[in-house]
Design a protein that fits this description.
With about 280 residues, the chain is an all-alpha fold. Helix content is about 65%, strand content about 0%. It has three domains: about 60 residues, no CATH class; about 40 residues, no CATH class; about 120 residues, no CATH class. It has 14 helices and no strands. The N and C termini lie far apart (about 120 Å).
């Protein structure tokens, strides 16, 4: 009898196991997934850092990143830190290029993978030379932060930040050298946004402004006020050229508006004339 029951017990156990496996797969693939619309791609980095298994000091990193200039430009976790964000088992695998958090002295090279021009100017600056010679000194994170990185502007040069390492006098001279050019770039950026809102194509002007901003911001990583002053005229010429194109576009909008008004008044006038002629003909 026991030889007859043993196979039945094994079959029942296997069936229960299979049923449990099926139920788990069913819940995962059907019950807990969206029935309509596009499914969002899983990001193992975000899921892990947002979960309760993560240390509290690291849980807010995803929120900081989502408020950053990197996020606005689709720069993801793996773009900086490596690893495989699609596979939780390989997200921190060195075989998939995971490098984690760099040491302070390695931070410039870490960020310089993308910011090549800035890295070159930084390494030639007093900041960069200090870090390379002593292993101490301001690196990218010191001024820009690590995850909630905002679009660069001269507002990053301020007394509160700069006096952490030295007096503010030299930094203030640097900021004054940047002031006019930075304000001109902001003015043009606002004008281009306004033109775009009015339906004008400003792709070429935006690209030229972006290129000018990138070169200018790379330049002030040299922290050399004299060099910035020397090249100010060059940057202003480029910005004035963009400004001239913006004025041409504004003139075109103005012309179109006036021409549309003229056509409307013309048609109204023709309508009145036709109406009067029709009335005269009937009389």
């Amino acid at each position: 009898m026991k030889y007859f029951l043993l196979p039945l017990i094994i079959i029942f156990a296997l069936a229960s196991s299979a049923n449990a496996g099926y139920r788990e797969a069913f819940e995962k693939e059907f019950l807990y997934k969206s029935w309509g619309g596009e499914e969002l791609e899983v990001n193992a980095c975000i899921e892990c850092h947002s979960s309760n298994i993560m240390k509290p000091e690291f849980q807010d990193i995803p929120n900081q990143w989502k408020m950053s200039w990197h996020y606005q430009n689709s720069v993801m976790c793996h773009d900086c830190h490596g690893g495989d964000y699609k596979d939780a088992t390989m997200s921190m695998s060195h075989q998939r290029g995971f490098v984690g958090t760099p040491k302070p002295a390695d931070t410039p090279q870490f960020c310089g993978k993308c910011h090549i021009g800035i890295l070159r100017n930084y390494l030639e600056s007093g900041h960069g030379k200090s870090l390379q010679s002593t292993g101490k000194g301001p690196n990218c994170v010191t001024c820009h932060g690590s995850h909630n990185i905002q679009k660069a502007s001269i507002e990053i040069i301020n007394e509160g930040r700069c006096t952490k390492c030295h007096s503010y006098e030299r930094a203030q001279i640097m900021k004054q050298a940047l002031f006019a050019t930075e304000n001109k770039m902001k003015e043009i950026e606002s004008q281009l946004a306004n033109l775009k809102a009015k339906g004008m194509y400003v792709g070429a002007e935006n690209r030229e402004l972006f290129s000018t901003q990138a070169e200018f911001h790379a330049l002030f990583h040299t922290i050399d006020a004299d060099l910035v002053k020397q090249r100010t005229d060059e940057f202003m010429r480029r910005l004035n050229a963009i400004d001239a194109k913006i004025k041409e576009s504004l003139d075109e909008i103005h012309f179109r508006k006036n021409f549309s008004t003229f056509l409307m008044l013309l048609f109204i006038g023709l309508g009145v004339v036709v109406g009067l002629l029709s009335k005269t003909y009937k009389d």
